[in-house]
Amino acid sequence: RTIVNNDSLWKALLQNLNRSYWHQIVTTTQVEDMMITFLKKDLQKIFDQYLRTTQVPVLAYNLKGGKLNYRWKNCVKGFNMPVKIKEGDKEIWLQPTEKWQQINYKRTDLDIDPNFYIGKEKLKSLKQ
Prior knowledge:
Blueprint: H1 7-21, H2 28-39, H3 44-52, E1 58-64, E2 67-73, E3 83-87, E4 90-94, E5 101-104, E6 111-112, E7 119-122
């Protein structure tokens, strides 16, 4: 729901699932496929991460000189879930991958939206 970031769209998805599969036994694949198609979002790696592994993805990050460097670790190959952070009153959507990325960020610690089931790890250097 947090990734969808649109309550009306989320409600419509749930209603569509209910209408389409009312009183039926469905497979995980059917639900995943409908969500991907309905939302027009590639959620496959997110499903793989949370439904097919026991690993909790970790957002590794480094803060130095007003720059935030970040990447996913402890995740399935190709994991690409966006994550929302805060900088003061402003919300920022990051698009982490397994490769380091960088943005300007003025805070001294990373404030991740608590609706995401992830870990975070502050690194002293990018070589860790």
